[in-house]
Predict the structure.
Amino acid sequence: MSLKGQLVAFLFEAASLRRVQRSGYQFLGRGQESVAEHVFGALTVAFVLGQQTPEANLEKLLTLILFHDLAEARTGDLNYVNKRYVLALEKEAYLDSIRGLPFEAELTELQNEWLAGETLEAKLAHDADQLDLMLELRRLASHGWRQARDWFSYAQKRLVTDVAKDLAKDLSIADPDAWWFEPREELWVNPPPAGDPKP
């Protein structure tokens, strides 16, 4: 296969994460998302964490998160129960997916850094991964889903950086609808026509 062919195949493989579902929600009983949706959420969280941590290499942090679940295009997403019984060769799947590409060495190094979890960027990336889950759990909990509150507390205990722990404290009590819902009767009973300025 030509290099361009390999690059196109890599893009198709990464794009397939849109169709790989995160499996933990089957036990929660509510919520669903694809791995790609999770990666977007974790990227957003990582950007916020990186902006608050000037000593971190933001490009490295975002790249760590961008590809942290790439192997799941080949292995699927295994939740905590699955992992007690099923061995997924995630590192091998990851390495096979980037083999022969111009950025193979760079992504291999980053994957090793992610797995070791020792650098500041790796710690922030792992925290961003958890905080993205916590955002969805907080949303579900705000709609009365009790198990989501339990899961939130477990995820919160996995955080390691101070910046992530501080964000999680605010997240744990935040109203997920506050960004869009203004409890003003005039906006909901007799809303202004589209394009009119808000009263």
Remarks:
- The domain at 3-188 is CATH 1.10.3210.10 (Hypothetical protein af1432).
- The mean pLDDT is 92.
- Residues 139 and 176 are 6 Å apart (CA to CA).
- The chain has one domain: 3-188.
